[in-house]
Amino acid sequence: MNEYSFIKMRETDLNKLYEVKTVALKAIVEKGYHGATISYIAKQAGVSDGYLYRHYANKNELVVELFKETMGYFHTLIFNLIESEDKISEILKQSFQFLADTSAETPEITAFIFIMDHDHNFDFPEIIKNNFVKIGQQLWAKGIQTGEISNKRSIEDVLTITFGMPVKMLEMRRKKIISDKPISSSDIENMVDMCLNALK
What we know:
- The protein is mostly helical.
- It has helices spanning 3-35, 38-45, 49-55, 59-84, 88-105, 107-117, 126-146, 155-174, 185-199.
- Helix content is 80%, strand content 0%.
């Protein structure tokens, strides 16, 4: 086998794994964590159960990787915003806009995050826990400095408000509980205002 053939095989495998992850994410949103079995995911992705088990020891390993990837994009954005922006209001506005855009383009991603966040049998990977703590600490410190966050608020308060509220709103819109309209710029401004008021 020449180098070119090996590279093409590797690309094919990576594309197939990407498709498996996409199918797995959608399956979990549609059927729940327990309903989306390895067999179901494999069938929907057009691969064998054995193919999945060659890459993942079990379903939890696949889901953990998916969760780390989806949360990783968001965490990277937040870290970059904390470094580049002076105000908590601007960090929140841009991060909420990112969530709204993601939800509009691929609603199953935010739904997946919401489902896994509320599954009592799913433990957050350590890297995600650690990133949440770092983000909370940095937002809290910057907010105290700018006067946008009260020193009565804890790091846990900051995370609960800045992550919990927007994700819950996106999930309510996805399920059309009160409104089925896409998240607008005025919705984002309103969410930022609610968060800042709650952080005082």
